[in-house]
Design a protein that fits this description.
Blueprint lengths: L2 H17 L13 H25 L3 H28 L1
Length: 89
Amino acid sequence: MNRKQKILKKTAKRAKARLNKHTPPNVKKYVSKGDRAKALAQEQAEAAAKANELAKKQPTDEANEEISEEQSETAAQETAQNAPQTKAQ
């Protein structure tokens, strides 16, 4: 190989190396078992608190059932009333 060929070979290697640079993955620091357990307990406590807040905001299930029964009855009555009108027209 002559001098020019060696220079070209080196520049090509450098260009290839620039493209193939190894970027290490983001390594997270070690979290001990106890710390993981504390974090999990805290997340569960927050989820329970949110569930309690939602339960307080919503009416009880019995009230919901009564309301839904009333709505279904009124809807049935309305459709029954509307049905003869459509036939008459």
